[in-house]
Amino acid sequence: MSDAFDYFVIFAEMRTGSNFLEENLNAYPGLKCWGEAFNPAFIGKSGQTELVGIGMAAREADPLALLGTLRERTDGLAGFRFFHDHDPRVLTHVLGDSRCAKIVLTRNPLDSYVSRKIASATGQWRLGDLKDARSAKVRFEPGEFQELLDELKGFQRFLQRHLQTTGQTAFYISYDDIQDIEVLNGLARFLGVDTPREKTTQKTKVQNPARIEDKVVNYAEMVSALSAIDHFNLSDTPNFEPARGPAVPSYVAAVRTPLLYMPVRGGPERAVRNWLSALDPEEEALLEGFTQKSLRQWKRKNKGHRSFTVIAHPAVRLHRSFCRYILNLGPQTYREIRDMLRTTYKLPLPVEAPDESYGVDRHREAFRKFADFVRGNLNGQTSVRVDGTWASQSEVVKGFADFSLPDLILREEDLSAGIGTLASAVGSTAVALAAEPEDTPFALSEIYDADIEEAVRAAYQRDYMMFGFGPWKA
Questions:
Q1: Is there a cis peptide before residue 314, judged by omega within 30 degrees of 0?
Q2: Gap between the Cα atoms of 275 and 94, Å rounded
Q3: What is the DSSP letter of 102?
Q4: pLDDT-derived band of residue 34, with 50, 70 and 90 as boundaries?
Q5: Half-sphere exposure of residue 150, counting CA atoms within 13 Å on the CB side?
């Protein structure tokens, strides 16, 4: 038996040939697959409610006890089949156990989908002999297939990433490979069995061997629908930007009014902070410097609280960040990055603070080149950190989810109306929102043109797509 593994799992899905694979593995000495041991609807096989003396209630209470018993009752290596909707507690356990051999069985998703539809229509999920075969032609439903495809791809990506990040590997086998005895013998060797077999078992028969066009009533419609599926993710926007955390210490809350602001840096932070202060004018400061622990305490204490964030048009946000953190000298300035941008990336920035010699044309060129730099920076092409003031807003908001998503995402251009709704939701009297301070020495409206829009859009393709931004309107 294997010195590397104590047991095995077959990751598969309905209609991928998992029954056939199980039968073939069970034909090898020292291997025993116990079926779908952790299917929520049954134990082992359809209609069965008990396995090795353990019933469904006991399995629900302690699924790992069943796993242990299966291993004890097996003379050799025990295994089971696991689908994406089986007990997630078992999934967590086996993925974290390097002593569990992983087998990943796949099949063309379209074939699986059609086979599943036929089995559902005929009520025949397994065929033992041709004389008992039932058949039917089914209708291809594009939305139904897309949902299945997304589900399967999502689970496969999850498995692959977990194996990669934990330094494990799996034996990958396809539906067609199960008919290849040499591949099966290779799988047996992977599991520690050195006794090869000469042929596969034939207990389970292929149920629907006909061409797919003979199984589907709307074949032409199916072909047309499949042509719209982006198999190679050609429409995907590449994302090499590092993931961001929830940034809890940056959150700000009013002292008495139960509102929590989760800032997207580079947004209208000053205006929102001033507005929060005005809600409780008798208080001198806002609540900030949260930790995850103290924020949980704040949430428990403030029943009915609301949290929100504000996103801005990428051109507005990037220009604001450029003026505040790069161009103008002050306590917020990133001086080292500013010097590098000026010397290495040739941005026409003044050595000191901008003066009369720094005109609007020079500002337009400097900002456009800064947008070009940010594009490369977000794609991991520079040695400079991806700062939160120009990180993609979609990545920042996704980072919030590591702790808690905001109740409301407001757009800067709609902020005045949105905060009124927020104040009303927590029973507070709305106060006017003061405008965010103007960018200096030049406003975006003085330099914005098609070239600026193109440079900003190139840097923030994902934000434009995710949030539906169009060209900026002053």
A1: no
A2: 51
A3: E
A4: very high
A5: 7
What average pLDDT does the segment 450-458 reach? Answer: 97
Query: Is 70 exceeded by the pLDDT of residue 357?
Result: yes
Give the residue from 131, 209, 217, 198 showing the smallest Cα distance to 176: 209
Whether residue 394 is predicted with pLDDT greater than 70 in this model: the reply is yes
Sorted by sequence, the CB contacts under 8 Å of residue 244 that are 6+ apart come out as 388, 391, 395, 396, 398, 399
* Listed residue (456, 237, 461, 463) closest to 472, CA to CA: 456
Beta 171-174 vs 31-33: how paired, if at all? unpaired
Question: Is there a contact between 399 and 243 (Cβ–Cβ < 8 Å)?
Answer: yes
CA atoms of 219 and 221, how far apart (whole Å): 5
Q: 277: exposed, middle or buried (C-beta count within 10 Å: 0-12, 13-18, 19+)? A: middle
40: left (phi over 0), alpha (psi -120 to 50) or beta: alpha
Separation CA 89–CA 81 (nearest Å): 15
The pair of three-digit structure tokens given for residue 8, joined into one six-digit string: 């095995």
Name residue 103's beta-bridge partners: 10, 171
User: Which residue is listed with tokens 């999920």?
Assistant: 125
Q: How far apart are CA 115 and CA 124, in angstroms?
A: 10
Give Cα 462 to chain centroid, integer Å.
Answer: 14
Q: Which of 159, 141, 167, 161 is nearest to 104 (CA)?
A: 159
- The pLDDT of residue 203: 67
127 and 197 Cβ atoms separated by less than 8 Å: no
Express each pLDDT in 52-71 by its tens digit.
999 999 999 999 999 999 99
